[in-house]
Design a protein that fits this description.
This protein has one domain: Pyruvate-ferredoxin Oxidoreductase, domain 3, CATH 3.40.920. It is 39% helix and 23% strand. Strands 2-3-1-4-5-6 form a six-stranded mixed beta sheet, sandwiched between helices. Helix 2 links the parallel strand 4 and strand 5.
Length: 192
């Protein structure tokens, strides 16, 4: 088993926390994990992306090659489109519906979502709305983790254990909020 994941978003959305949780879940199952990330102008709303690979055998590269991503998990819809060349023919795109319009000339929001909707395997999620329902808009990244979880080939118990571990220093309220966000995202994925 090899999984190639592209995580895409904008600075401040919690993408690196999302990558850390998935990586921790994979490591907890004794999988080999490789990750590479770019977070240049992240504090100013710039692009943040992470290549995340894990397998039941040694991996040589931490970069996902074009055309091989099993999943593009995007916290921002235009960023989902940016990484489509990496998607494998059988891969899926799971994107937040909420655009972060932080550049002049941002494309029409409905056109961006329509483009994602043309993909054979896609899911667009109201991550912000579900995160608010969970108790904190900052948990939108964990909503997206839940929504993308059917494509990760990791058991939910490993993912929830990684959430608990990652947020342990934040206390039980933050842990429960993020677990609830994960469950709401998983429900939005159309799987149980």
């Amino acid at each position: 088993m090899i999984r190639n994941i592209i995580l895409a978003g904008v600075g401040g959305q919690g993408l690196l926390a999302l990558a850390a949780v998935i990586g921790e879940a994979a490591r907890s199952l004794d999988l080999d994990v490789k990750q590479a990330e770019v977070h240049g102008m992240a504090q100013r709303g710039g692009v943040v992306q992470s290549h995340l690979r894990y397998a039941d055998r040694p991996l040589r590269s931490n970069l996902v090659r074009r055309g091989t991503a099993d999943l593009i998990l995007a916290l921002e819809p235009m960023e989902a489109l940016r990484y489509l060349p990496y998607l494998s023919p059988g891969g899926a795109v799971v994107s937040s519906a909420a655009p972060l319009v932080n550049i002049p000339g941002y494309p029409d929001e409905s056109a961006v979502l329509e483009e994602i909707g043309r993909l054979p395997a896609h899911r667009i999620v109201d991550a912000v709305g579900l995160a608010k329902e969970a108790g904190a808009v900052q948990a939108a990244n964990m909503v997206m983790l839940g929504a993308g979880s059917p494509h990760l080939d990791l058991p939910a118990s490993a993912l929830t254990g990684a959430i608990e571990s990652f947020f342990t220093d934040k206390g039980p309220v933050v842990i429960e909020t993020n677990l609830k966000a994960f469950r709401l995202g998983k429900a939005a994925s159309g799987t149980s």
